[in-house]
Amino acid sequence: MTEINPKNPAEQLSAYLDGELNDSERDDVEALLREDPSARAELDRLREIAAQVGALPRRPAPSGLAQDVMSSIERDNLLDQPDTLAVHRTSTWRILRSVLLAAAVIALTVTAGLYTVSLMHTPRDQAAFNEIAHAVIPETALPAAQPTSQDRYVLDAVRSMEAIESEAVAPVTNQTPVLVLGGERAAGASAMLDARKVTPLKTEARLEHAFVIAQEDADEAVAAETVESQVILEVATADARDLQWCSEKLNRFLGERKDLSSVTEGIAETLLGLHRAGGITVSPVGLVERHIELPASELPRLVRMFDTGGTVRRDVTLSVGRVLRARGWHQTRQLLAMVGKGDLQPTGMRSAPTGAAATFERPRIASRRGRGQSAPADARRTAFDAEADDELTTFFPKAVKQIWGKLDDGTGDSMITITVRLRAATVAAEPAGPPGRLVPTLSKYPQDP
Amino acid sequence: MQREQTTSRDDDATLVRSAQTGDVQAFDTLVRRYQDRVYNACWRICRNPDDALDLTQEAFVKAYQAIDRFQGTSGFYTWIFRIAVNLALSHRKKAKLRLVTSLDDNAGPGSEGRESAAQRLSDDKTLEPPAQAEAGEMHKLVASALQAIEEHHRSVAVLRDIEGLDYRQIAEVLDAPLGTIKSRVHRARAALREELEKRTANVRANPGK
Question: Distances from the Cα of A133 to the Cαs of A104, A128, A193, in angstroms?
């Protein structure tokens, strides 16, 4: 019997099939094939597999790819020319000033009143934030007129910033006001607040408790990115003490860091107790987001992706550290440009395609809408009602488990954040007196077990 | 065929030389010539059309940036593949979980008419991966088996059996010795056979599923 490559004769068959053997090796294989029916069967099987793989449908490149590549190259070429670079940077900075104002305001909204068990606050972020927040609002740009009634909804942004500054060492309290506007209106209002020309009519306090439950892959080397989900429950009340009570109870869960089931059930029980006592509404926002953590080393690639233009996902949110956050393609691109030029030094980046936010649906429940009737289209923002307590205690933990199950396939890092967003608001009749006072009302809190 | 390849390679070399002297149009011709093959290979390796698009773009941009250093000892085609496959493999390591998680797949009642996460993530609707692309049942099984095997096996299977590169070219693309490639090609086919047999048995055991 002919012997070929006794270490791995089958390997020789593959190479024979591919025409990769020299004359002598080929003669050996052909001799083997003549003698050995099993070798012939093996060769046929290898040929079949190669043909099956080769027959897989081809997917053509999306139209516009070449154009995008060439646009990117041309842009690079332009930027390499020193004369045009200076002009480009100047005009970009002008745009950036306005964009970053909006980004800073949004950042305030996001970070004020927020604390999680995994704070990543860094002095460098803070410095960058302060610099931008102050630099982009020149004194001359401050509006002299009184704010509109809508703008009075805005609270004390300066205090919010102070809250951010102290965030790394202490959780915010229910006295921490938050800025709740975005966009152009917020920009003007923020400037007015900075100058303390506004006495807000409405005061709002907000707390967020985030329960972060992480699954870490044993093979850390291949899991540089994390898939993260958020489930948000919004709790609204007119009584600031509700927040304190809730906060204390939820903090216990934060401290204990139990497993997923006990945390979700604990949250549900806590909120249900308050709900039964009356005076609050709980809304499952049901936001599920997938954040991709990007190390700073990935930055050039990200910048390039955006530079190619046209094919980059436009519904993106990008955060630099915890303080700066750009929403949408244009803001993100500008923010990246700043980072790319070294104006900001991120310690890490997070890209969250907001368009990928999947909302969880409320289940078909037996309620006064009728058994089996599906929830309305806007169900995810519908408050729980008194007859649907089971939604809070049954559906919410179930929904969290369902989302977790989808994330946690055991192949990498995944993380779910359950956020309980507590909000209390009261409106004063007159814009007099110091802002930020929340009026305690009834004593109605369920007794702690 | 050999004649055609030689002509194409000569032509590539001419275009590369033009690009090296600053002729952007020449590079554009190269991009258009190879974009489909590069994109398809990236897609098969990284399994995600959006990522494949990003990687293909990045590969061509990197190639242009380094065009002055391209000596022409290998073909442009092999060179661009080397850049793209390296990017794809590096990307796969980082994006392992992202690619296997689809929040909207198998959505329950009420999901009718909703876009999938993948659809919402993409600006370019032409990218949406029609299930039709893998129309035949056998294609589905083979594609699924290809995704299941180890990455370095998948790479050689794609380069050899889909792209038709010879062992020497694959060795250049993957920067590995010829003997290693020879061994990997066979192991890839053996692994594919195993995965295919599992899937075929499963289909037989659960017909209609």
Answer: 6, 8, 12
Which DSSP letter does residue A177 get? Answer: B
- Residues sharing a CB contact under 8 Å with residue A419, sequence separation 6 or more, in sequence order: A208, A209, A210, A211, A230, A231, A232, A233
pLDDT exceeds cutoff 50 at A197: no
Taking CB atoms and an 8 Å cutoff, what residues of chain B touch A79?
A: none
Whether residue A18 lies within 8 A of chain B, CB to CB, comes out as: yes
Within 10 angstroms of residue B141's Cβ, the number of other Cβ atoms is 19
Partner-chain residue, chosen from B24, B135, B157, that has the shortest CB–CB distance to A74: B24
Kindly report, residue by residue over A230-271, the tens digit of the pLDDT: 566 666 665 555 666 666 666 665 556 556 677 677 777 777
Report pLDDT for A73: 77
Q: Is the pLDDT of residue B198 over 70?
A: yes
Closest-approach residue (CA) in chain A for B89: A222
What Å distances lie between residue A380 and A29, A133, A231, A317, A383, CA to CA? 67, 34, 11, 22, 8
- Dist CA A129 CA A126 (whole Å): 5
Residue type, A74: E
Residue B103 near residue A356, CB atoms below 8 Å: yes
CA–CA distance, A394 with A402 (Å, rounded to integer): 12
Of A289 and B23, more confident = B23
Using CA atoms, how far apart are residues A101 and A105, in angstroms rounded to an integer? 6
**Cβ of B150 under 8 Å from any chain A Cβ?**
no
Query: In this model, does residue A39 exceed pLDDT 60?
Result: yes
ipTM (interface pTM)? 0.76
Average pLDDT value for residue range A298-315: 52
Chain B CB contacts of A64 under 8 Å are 124
| pLDDT on residue A58 | 83
Rounded distance between C-alpha atoms, residue A182 and residue A103, angstroms: 9
Instruction: Give CA torsion, residues B152, B155, B157, B159, to 10 deg.
Output: -140
Using an 8 Å CB-CB cutoff, list chain B residues near A45.
Answer: 193
Q: Which of A325, A323, A320 is nearest to A354 (CA)?
A: A325
